[in-house]
Design brief:
The protein is of the alpha+beta class and 759 residues long. The protein has 25 helices and ten strands.
C-alpha cells in the first residue's frame, strides 16, 4: 500500500474554502515534489558513487571522468523528471546519455538507473505495444552502442539478449503495476457509487411494472372502453349483452393481473404459442389471422404475442372497426410478425400512453430483431406494424485467445526473460569455460533445449501443472544429451543459471491450482530432477548418487517455501474474492429491498386507483350499467397513464455497472441485447465495461453484450464514427484493464473484450 505524505497545514486564520488558490498551489507543490524526489535521489546516489567506488574496489580515483559523470547525471535528472509526462522522450534521453558515456558506464551509474526507471515509466503510462516497442528499442540501441565502443559482434548480440531480458522483466512488472492501479481506481469508483444502486433498482422496478401494466391491464381496459362505447352508441341489445359480458370477464382479468404484478410481484412471462396468438386475434371480430409457421421458439412466440396485442390495442384506439390482418411467417432463421389495418375512426385515442411501440422496439432489438411501424399504402389511410425476429439461437461465444487472457501476456514477458538470460550467457561465456557454440550440432541442440525450457513459462497461469512437467522433461532430456556427449555445456551450470524457471512454475502450481491437485509433489519432483542434474555436473567428484541426493534435499527447502508462498497467496486471493462477493451480495440485498419497498408502495397506490376502478368496472358491468363501465375503465386507464408518464422525471444517476447500460441505451434510444446469462462481475471489470459502453453508446446505436466464463465482450454499432480522441482513450482504458479493442475500417463498429480470468 502506498502512503502519501499529508499536505502542509494552512497558515493560521486561513480557511480552505476562502483560499482555494492557496490550496491549489499546495496540491501542485506536492505533485511537483513527488516528481522530483526520484531524480534527486538518483543524482545523490551518483554523487556518492563516484568517489566511493574507487575506495570500494581499491582503484585510483580518476578526476578526468568527473565532467562526463556530471553530464550523464544532469541528463538523467531531466529524463527522470519527465518520466510520467513524456516517457518516450525521457527514455530516449536516458538511453542516449548511457550509450554516449562509453567507458564511463560503471562510473556514471545514473545513466543505467535512468534507463531502468524511464522504461518502467513508459510501461506504466503507455499501452502494451508502445511500451514493448520502446523497451526493445532501448535494449537494441544500447547493444549497438556497445558494438560501436569496441565490443565484438557476438558480445553485442549477447548484451542485446541480456538487456532484452532485463527489459522483459521491467515490462512485466510495469504491466502488473498498471493493472493493479487500474483495478484499484475502478474498485474505488464502484464503492463510491454503490449508494446509487438502490435508487437505480427502484427506478428499474418502476419501469418494469410500468411496462407490464401497459402490456396487460391497459390493453384490456382499452378493449372495455371501445366495446362498451360502441354498444352505447349503436343501442343494439345483442351488442350490449356482449359488451357487458366482455366487461365482466376483462375487468376480472385486469384485477387478477394487477394483483399478480404488484402483490405477488412476478414479472409477466408469457408462455404462448401460435394457437394462443390465434385466440388473441379471435377476440377482435374484424381481424383475420394468417400464419404459415407451425411452431416457433417460446421466446419468439412470447414476443410475437406482445407485438400483436399492442398492435390490436392501437387499432381499437385509433381505427375502430378497421379490417385488420395479422400475419405470421417463418423461414431462413427469421420469423415475421405483421399487423396491417385499412384505417378507421378513432374510438379512444386520448387513452394511449405513447410508450407501447417504443417499449416493444427496445424488446425486439434486444432480441436481435427489428420493428417498423408507420402508415400503410400510398394513401396512408391504414397502419402497419412489422417485426422481424431471429428464430435461431445466438452462436456460442468463442474461447478467448491467449492474448486476451489477462495476465497470460505477462507470462510471455517471462519467456523473453528466460531466453534472454540463458542465450545471453551462452553468447558471452567466461574465459575459463569452453565455448558451447564451437561446434554447429551441439550449438543448435543447446539453443533448442534452452528455448524449449523457457517456453513453459507462457502457460504458467493457464496450465501450471503441465507446464512444470514439460520443464522437468526438458531437463531430463538435457541430462541425457549431456551424458551422450551431444552438448558441451555443463548441465549443473546451466541449471543454476535457469532454475528460477522451475521456481516460478512451482509458485504457479501453488497459487493457481487446488492444493490437493499436486500438493508437495510439485516441489519434490523439481528437487529430485534438479539434484540429478547437479549431481551430473563436472564439479562433482566421488559418489554422484549420494551427491545428487544431498543436493536434492538442499533444493527441496527453497522449493517447498516457494510452493507454500504460492498457497498463501492463493488463500489470500480467495479471501479477498469471498469478501468482495459478500460485499456485492450485501449491496444487491439492499437494492432488492429498496425495489421491494417501492413495489409495495406502487401496489398501495394502484389498489387505491387503477385496481379500484377495475373492481368498479366489474360491479358496473354486472349491474348492466355500461355508461358507468366506460367511466370507470377510462378512469383506470388515466391512472395507469399517469403512472407511466410519471416515471421519466425520476431517473437517478446510473451506477458504474454493466446492468445499467440497458437503461442508458433506453435513454439514448438505442438497442441492447445479451448473449449468455448476465451475472455479477468483479467490480473493476464492471466499471471499465460501463465507462467504455457509456462513451460508445449514442442515439440509435446497436449494442451486444456477451457474457462468457472468461470475461465480458461488447460490440457497439453506432453513428457517427468514433473519433480519434475517443479511440485513444478507449485503447488506454482497455490496455490498463488487460483487455483488447478492435474497430472496423470506418470506425462505426467497435468491439472490446475484458478478461475475468487470470487477473
Amino acid at each position: 500500500m502506498r502512503f502519501r505524505r499529508p499536505p502542509p497545514p494552512l497558515p493560521a486564520g486561513v480557511s480552505p474554502a476562502a483560499n482555494l488558490p492557496y490550496a491549489r498551489s499546495m496540491g501542485q507543490w506536492a505533485s511537483a515534489w513527488r516528481d522530483v524526489r526520484v531524480p534527486a535521489a538518483v543524482v545523490v546516489a551518483q554523487a556518492l558513487w563516484w568517489p566511493l567506488r574507487p575506495w570500494w574496489f581499491g582503484v585510483a580515483l580518476d578526476a578526468r571522468s568527473l565532467p562526463g559523470v556530471c553530464a550523464v547525471a544532469v541528463v538523467a535528472f531531466g529524463a527522470l523528471l519527465y518520466r510520467r509526462r513524456a516517457p518516450e522522450l525521457a527514455l530516449l534521453c536516458a538511453v542516449l546519455a548511457t550509450a554516449l558515456s562509453g567507458g564511463l558506464a560503471t562510473v556514471a551509474v545514473a545513466g543505467p538507473v535512468a534507463v531502468v526507471l524511464t522504461s518502467y515509466g513508459l510501461v506504466v503510462h503507455r499501452t502494451a505495444v508502445v511500451s514493448a516497442v520502446g523497451v526493445v528499442t532501448a535494449a537494441f540501441g544500447l547493444a549497438v552502442a556497445a558494438a560501436f565502443h569496441g565490443a565484438s559482434l557476438r558480445a553485442a548480440a549477447g548484451a542485446a539478449l541480456l538487456l532484452g531480458a532485463v527489459g522483459g522483466a521491467i515490462w512485466a512488472v510495469g504491466r502488473l503495476s498498471r493493472r493493479i492501479r487500474s483495478d484499484r481506481d475502478a474498485a474505488a469508483a464502484f464503492r463510491a457509487a454503490s449508494d446509487g444502486l438502490a435508487p437505480f433498482a427502484v427506478a428499474e422496478e418502476r419501469r418494469r411494472l410500468a411496462t407490464e401494466l401497459h402490456d396487460v391491464a391497459a390493453h384490456r381496459l382499452t378493449a372495455i372502453v371501445v366495446s362498451a362505447g360502441a354498444a352505447l352508441r349503436l343501442a343494439n341489445p345483442a351488442l350490449r349483452e356482449g359488451a357487458v359480458e366482455h366487461a365482466v370477464n376483462a375487468g376480472r382479468q385486469v384485477v387478477e393481473d394487477l394483483d399478480r404484478l404488484v402483490v405477488l410481484a412476478e414479472p409477466d412471462h408469457d408462455e404462448t404459442d401460435i394457437v394462443a396468438i390465434g385466440a388473441l386475434v379471435a377476440q377482435h371480430p374484424a381481424a383475420r389471422y394468417e400464419h404459415t409457421a407451425a411452431a416457433l421458439p417460446p421466446a419468439v412466440t412470447a414476443l410475437g404475442y406482445r407485438i400483436v396485442r399492442e398492435a390490436l390495442t392501437n387499432v381499437m384506439r385509433y381505427a375502430e372497426g378497421a379490417a385488420t390482418t395479422v400475419r405470421i411467417t417463418a423461414g431462413d432463421g427469421w420469423a415475421s410478425v405483421e399487423v396491417l389495418d385499412d384505417g378507421g375512426a378513432p374510438a379512444a385515442g386520448d387513452l394511449g400512453a405513447g410508450r407501447g411501440l417504443a417499449g416493444l422496439r427496445i424488446r425486439v432489438e434486444a432480441a436481435g430483431g427489428s420493428l417498423e411501424a408507420g402508415p400503410a399504402g400510398s394513401a396512408g389511410s391504414g397502419w402497419r406494424v412489422h417485426a422481424r425476429l431471429p428464430t435461431r439461437p445466438d452462436p456460442a461465444p468463442g474461447t478467448p485467445t491467449l492474448n486476451a487472457a489477462g495476465g497470460a501476456i505477462r507470462d510471455r514477458a517471462l519467456v523473453v526473460l528466460a531466453l534472454g538470460l540463458s542465450m545471453g550467457a551462452v553468447l558471452m561465456p567466461s574465459a575459463d569455460d569452453p565455448d558451447p557454440l564451437a561446434a554447429p550440432v551441439p550449438a543448435m541442440l543447446l539453443v533448442a533445449l534452452l528455448t524449449l525450457h523457457a517456453l513453459p513459462l507462457a502457460w504458467r497461469r493457464l496450465a501450471p501443472g503441465p507446464a512444470l512437467g514439460a520443464a522437468l522433461w526438458i531437463l531430463l532430456a538435457w541430462l541425457g544429451c549431456t551424458a551422450a556427449g551431444w552438448t558441451r555445456r555443463d548441465p549443473a551450470e546451466t541449471f543454476l543459471w535457469c532454475w528460477w524457471v522451475e521456481l516460478a512454475l512451482v509458485y504457479a502450481v501453488g497459487a493457481y491450482r487446488p492444493a490437493n491437485r499436486y500438493g508437495l509433489g510439485a516441489p519434490l519432483a523439481v528437487a529430485a530432477v534438479g539434484g540429478a542434474v547437479l549431481g551430473a555436473g563436472t564439479g562433482v567428484t566421488g559418489n554422484r548418487v549420494a551427491a545428487a541426493t544431498v543436493l536434492a534435499v538442499l533444493l527441496a527447502v527453497p522449493l517447498i517455501i516457494t510452493w507454500v508462498a504460492g498457497r498463501l497467496v492463493a488463500a489470500r486471493r480467495s479471501r479477498q474474492a469471498e469478501a468482495e462477493t459478500c460485499e456485492r451480495e450485501a449491496l444487491l440485498r439492499r437494492a432488492e429491498g429498496a425495489a421491494r419497498n417501492e413495489r409495495f408502495r406502487i401496489a398501495d397506490g394502484l389498489r387505491r386507483s387503477a385496481r379500484g376502478h377495475a373492481v368498479s368496472v366489474v360491479a358496473a358491468a354486472e349491474a348492466g350499467r355500461l355508461d358507468e363501465v366506460v367511466v370507470q375503465a377510462r378512469a383506470g386507464l388515466h391512472a395507469l397513464r399517469e403512472l407511466l408518464h410519471g416515471l421519466p422525471a425520476d431517473s437517478p444517476d446510473l451506477p458504474p455497472a454493466v446492468a445499467a447500460l440497458a437503461d442508458l441505451a433506453a435513454r439514448r434510444r438505442s438497442s441492447l441485447r445479451y448473449i449468455g446469462a448476465p451475472r455479477p462481475l468483479p467490480a473493476p471489470l464492471e466499471v471499465v465495461a460501463h465507462r467504455a459502453g457509456a462513451a460508445l453508446i449514442t442515439d440509435g446505436a446497436a449494442v451486444v453484450v456477451t457474457y462468457t466464463d472468461y470475461g465480458l465482450g461488447m460490440e457497439v454499432r453506432r453513428r457517427p464514427p468514433v473519433g480519434r480522441d475517443l479511440v485513444r482513450s478507449l485503447r488506454h482504458m482497455m490496455d490498463a484493464a488487460g483487455g483488447s479493442l478492435t474497430l472496423d475500417t470506418d470506425r462505426t463498429m467497435v468491439r472490446f473484450w475484458l478478461p475475468e480470468a487470470l487477473r
